[in-house]
Amino acid sequence: MKYKLLLAGSLFAIIAISLLTASVNQREAERIAINERPLVAQKIKHKNEEWARYYPRQYSSWKKTKESSQIIDMLKEKSQLPILWAGYGFAKDYNAPRGHYYALQDNVNTLRTGAPVDGKSGPMPTACWTCKSPDVPRIMERDGELEYFTGKWAKYGSEIVNPIGCADCHSNVTGELNVRRPHLDRALEAAGLPSFADSTHQERRNLVCAQCHVEYYFKKTEWTDKDGNKKVAKVVTLPWENGLTAEGAEKYYDEMGFKDWTHKISKTPMLKTQHPGYELYKTGIHGQKGVSCADCHMPYTQEGSVKYSDHQLQNPLETMDRSCMTCHRESEQKLRGIVTQKYKRKEQLHELAMDNLAKAHLETAKAMEAGASDEELAGVRADIRSGQWKWDYAVASHPAFFHAPEETLRLLAVANESAMKARLTLVSVLAKHGVMDYSAPDFSNKKNAQSLAGVPLEKLVAAKNKFKATLEKEWYKIAVKNGNLNMDSRKEVDEESSYFSK
Fold it and tell me: What is the pTM of this model?
């Protein structure tokens, strides 16, 4: 009887172990199958929804970027902005960035891209599409980079129809991280840094973001097409030859005598910072410690035996258990308090710098009205240009107060100092021309500020709405016909903006 019980127990143990081994092997096979990088058909590389069959979890999380849908009118929140950007497109319309799901539609909706009536009209160049869609590298590879950068924004309206997604950062053949916009490698070479191919995997997790989250300008480049036609391309170029700093980029622009626009109020030759997120991040503690963008904004998620990167790309404070607590040992509450403190400090200097820069522009206009010459105002304009550049550099990347709090505060402090220096000089210039105790007009709300900046808002909105009712609709019909767009993917696209609500 004793031996029979031992035999039965042994048989039971053997069966249990066999079943457990089979289960483990099955789960491991499933994990490997799910995590392998399948080949993705060449013909669908620019359509995000077609990647779902290969990477269902990543695609499902990417689609959640549509949850970041709130429209925040920054010209209303910060009424100094229309004054600072008078004569430039951002004075017309500027909303806080939303999720990647809306990036392309927001580019179409904004008043900055105008109201073209055909493929050759409108105020902006094709370069304005560059970071908004995986259709862009597809067109670059098909037409050539210089042809892509030649012409008006509306030229590719019927082809650039899929929002930021899979093929922007991944090879459509292997699924591996990939950079398909040539301007990044050119900038890395200019800065003396390793190319994308020569970078570590961890740094590549930053560089796929640095394709777009960087400072850039449109470099006029003359070229001749295959038919011998001479053309001018406006090529996205990163000003990294003097390093990845605000001062380095400013020196680059100053030495080439570059300006983005002439200020409508003060007649100052201005620079407009874009969004130097990568550059500022590199100066902060996370960047210095080797923490990548993806570590915080795309934390790993575990589903059973499957581990994958969350592509929702949201505020790390929304996923602190996966984004922050894997490294930090403080409580979530304490970390939130630290972030709030950093934000409040930034906001105080942010407001001071904007107020003084806006008043400097308006006081310069008053000095011109009183008879001050360009020679008298040369120093004032140099201070305004430099101060506004550093203010913009500090805030244009949006979360810089967290990525690089010390550098952000330094730049805002220097910006404010330059603005105050300009205003002190203006006191003497105004007095010289008989203007005493001048007070800048009220710009405490968006309406007043845009009026002072000469923005014909009603006219711009009417033209934009006409464009949306006509040419934009034609673009999508053509895109569907040519196989570049699945119209079902647009069903949930949010058409709202600061001036238009569906």
Answer: 0.90
